C-alpha cells in the first residue's frame, strides 16, 4: 500500500536542492557590513529544516495562551509583572527538546485526505524555536476593553471585543543562535541549558517570597516608617505613591519597574533611561509640585486618577451620556474641567514627546543610511547577504497577500469602531489617522520594526 505523502502543518517552504558551494574565503568577505549583525546572525541557512511542525503548533499555541493569561492576570498589580517573549524563548527550548526526545516518529494521516504529518520529524531546531517565540505575543488591545468595563463601567459586545483584539495585532537573534549552537559541557562547569535551569529554579524559589508569602517587602520605606503621620514624608519617601527617597525593594518587579527587563537591555540604554528617570522624578517633578505649578498641590503628587478642582475624585459618569456613551458638553460644563496629578501630566506629555523625538533621532542619526538602503531596495539591489539567502532558498511571498491583509484588517477595524452601536467611540477617520501615523513612523526600507527597548509613546 502506498504511503500518503508527508506534509508539515502549513509548511510552504521551498527547499533548495543544490549544495552550498561557498568556501570560507567567500564567507569571510560576503558578510553583513554591520558589526553587531555580523557577530550574532549566521550567514548560512539550511532550507531543509522543518519549521511548521506539530511541536511548533502545540508549543506555540500553549505558550501564547499562557503568556497572555499571565500578563493579564499580573498586569493589575500595583507593580505589574510582564512576561516577555524572551522568557518564552528560553522556556520552550527544554520543552522542545523534551518533545523531540519523547514523541514517537509516527506519521499521522488526516482522515479523508492523502495528507499526513509527523509528530517528531527530528531534533528540535532553530526555525521551530523562532516560530514558537513569534506565537508568544500578548494582546495589546485588552487594556482598552479593561478601561471600558472597569473605568467607565460599560458593557462591550463580545464580538466587538474579539475583533478589537484581533485587528490590533499588526527577536532575540543572538540568543537563538547561542541556544542552538552545539556545546560541550566544560569540566567542572555547566552548559547554557543547565545554567538556565538552575537560574529558573532559584529565581522562582525567591520570587514566591515577596509576591505571595511576604508582599510587604516589595517596597519598604524608611522615611515613612519614621514619620508616619507626615504627608510630606509620605510624598517624599513612599515607594508606591511618592518619590521613593529612602525606600528599597526586594521584589524584582519593583526594582526593574522603570525599565521592564534589564537582562536583555544594553548597558548604555539602561544608563540613558535611568538618567531621564532621575531628571524627571527627582528634579522636574519636585520643583513643579512644591512650586504649586497649575495648582499641583491640590492633588496627589503621583496618581493615575482624575480629580475635580477641589481635589476630590472626578465623577466620569457626569460627562458621558448614559444612553449613548457619548461625551456630554453640558455635563462637562457642569462638572468642571478634569485635573491630573503633576506626575500623570508629565507622563502624558513626555509620552507624546517621545514620538516626535524618535522620528527626529532616526532622521538625524540614521537618515543617510536609511535613504541609501531605500534607494537600493527600490532599484532592486540586494547587497545584504541575508536577503540573498532568503531569495535563493525560499519563494517570495506574493505582494497581493499583504495588500489583501491590509485592506481586510482596516475594513474590520472600521467595522468594529463604527458598528455595535459605536461602543468604542472611535470614528472611521480615527482608524485611518492611526494607520497613517503608524505608516509614517516606519522606515521606508524596513519590513519589520527593530527590536526597541520599549515602544515610543
Topology:
Layout: H1 24-29, H2 35-40, H3 54-74, H4 85-102, E1 107-109, E2 116-118, H5 126-135, H6 142-151, H7 158-167, H8 173-180, H9 192-213, E3 220-221, H10 222-226, H11 231-237, E4 247-248, H12 252-255, H13 267-290, E5 306-307, H14 329-335, E6 339-340, H15 342-378, H16 385-393, H17 399-418, H18 428-440
Antiparallel strand pairs: 1-2, 3-4, 5-6
Helix pairs in contact: 3-4, 3-5, 4-5, 7-17, 17-18
- Principal-axis shape: globular
Radius of gyration: 27 Å
Q: Work out the helicity level.
A: 40-55%
Strand order of the largest sheet: 1-2
Question: Structural class, please?
Answer: mainly alpha
Strand and helix order: HHHHEEHHHHHEHHEHHEHEHHHH
Cα-to-Cα separation, first versus last residue: 61 Å
Strand count, sense and barrel status of the largest sheet are: 2 strands, antiparallel
What is the number of helical segments per DSSP (H or I, 4+ residues)? 18
User: How many E strands?
Assistant: 6
> Which segments are poorly predicted (pLDDT under 50) over 5 or more consecutive residues?
1-29, 445-457
Mean pLDDT: 78
Strand content: under 5%
Amino acid at each position: 500500500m502506498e504511503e500518503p505523502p508527508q506534509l508539515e502543518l502549513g509548511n510552504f517552504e521551498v527547499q533548495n536542492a543544490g549544495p552550498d558551494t561557498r568556501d570560507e574565503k567567500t564567507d569571510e568577505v560576503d558578510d553583513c557590513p554591520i558589526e553587531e549583525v555580523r557577530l550574532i546572525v549566521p550567514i548560512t541557512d539550511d532550507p531543509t529544516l522543518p519549521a511548521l511542525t506539530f511541536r511548533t503548533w502545540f508549543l506555540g499555541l500553549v505558550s501564547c495562551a499562557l503568556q497572555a493569561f499571565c500578563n493579564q492576570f499580573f498586569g493589575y498589580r500595583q507593580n505589574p509583572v510582564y512576561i516577555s517573549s524572551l522568557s518564552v524563548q528560553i522556556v520552550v527550548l527544554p520543552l522542545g527538546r523534551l518533545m523531540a526526545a519523547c514523541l514517537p516518529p509516527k506519521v499521522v494521516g488526516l482522515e479523508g485526505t492523502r495528507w499526513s504529518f509527523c509528530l517528531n520529524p527530528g531534533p528540535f531546531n532553530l526555525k521551530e524555536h523562532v516560530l514558537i517565540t513569534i506565537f508568544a505575543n500578548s494582546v495589546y488591545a485588552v487594556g482598552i476593553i479593561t478601561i471600558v468595563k472597569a473605568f467607565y463601567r460599560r458593557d462591550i459586545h463580545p464580538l466587538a471585543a474579539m475583533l478589537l483584539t484581533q485587528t490590533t495585532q499588526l527577536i532575540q537573534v543572538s540568543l537563538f543562535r547561542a541556544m542552538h549552537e552545539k556545546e560541550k559541557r566544560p569540566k567542572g562547569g555547566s552548559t547554557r541549558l543547565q545554567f538556565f535551569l538552575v537560574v529558573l529554579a532559584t529565581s522562582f524559589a525567591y520570587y514566591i517570597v515577596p509576591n505571595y508569602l511576604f508582599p510587604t517587602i516589595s517596597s519598604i520605606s524608611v522615611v515613612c516608617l519614621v514619620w508616619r503621620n507626615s504627608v510630606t514624608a509620605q510624598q517624599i519617601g513612599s515607594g508606591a505613591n511618592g518619590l521613593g527617597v529612602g525606600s528599597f525593594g526586594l521584589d524584582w518587579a519593583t526594582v526593574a519597574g522603570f525599565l521592564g527587563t534589564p537582562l536583555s537591555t544594553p548597558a548604555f540604554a539602561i544608563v540613558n533611561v535611568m538618567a531621564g528617570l532621575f531628571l524627571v522624578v527627582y528634579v522636574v517633578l519636585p520643583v513643579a509640585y512644591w512650586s504649586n505649578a497649575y495648582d499641583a498641590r491640590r492633588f496627589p503628587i503621583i496618581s493615575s486618577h482624575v480629580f475635580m478642582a477641589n481635589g476630590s475624585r472626578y465623577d466620569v459618569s457626569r460627562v458621558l451620556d448614559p444612553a449613548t456613551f457619548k461625551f456630554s458638553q453640558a455635563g462637562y460644563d457642569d462638572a468642571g474641567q478634569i485635573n491630573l496629578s503633576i506626575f500623570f501630566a508629565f507622563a502624558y506629555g513626555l509620552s507624546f514627546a517621545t514620538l516626535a523625538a524618535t522620528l527626529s533621532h532616526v532622521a538625524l542619526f540614521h537618515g543617510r543610511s536609511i535613504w541609501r538602503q531605500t534607494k537600493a531596495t527600490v532599484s532592486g539591489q540586494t547587497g545584504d547577504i541575508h536577503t540573498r539567502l532568503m531569495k535563493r532558498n525560499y519563494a517570495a511571498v506574493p505582494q497581493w497577500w499583504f495588500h489583501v491583509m491590509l485592506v481586510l484588517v482596516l475594513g474590520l477595524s472600521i467595522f468594529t469602531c463604527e458598528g455595535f452601536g459605536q461602543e468604542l467611540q472611535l470614528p472611521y477617520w480615527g482608524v485611518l489617522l492611526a494607520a497613517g501615523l503608524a505608516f509614517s513612523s516606519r522606515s521606508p526600507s524596513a519590513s519589520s520594526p527593530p527590536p526597541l527597548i520599549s515602544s515610543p509613546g
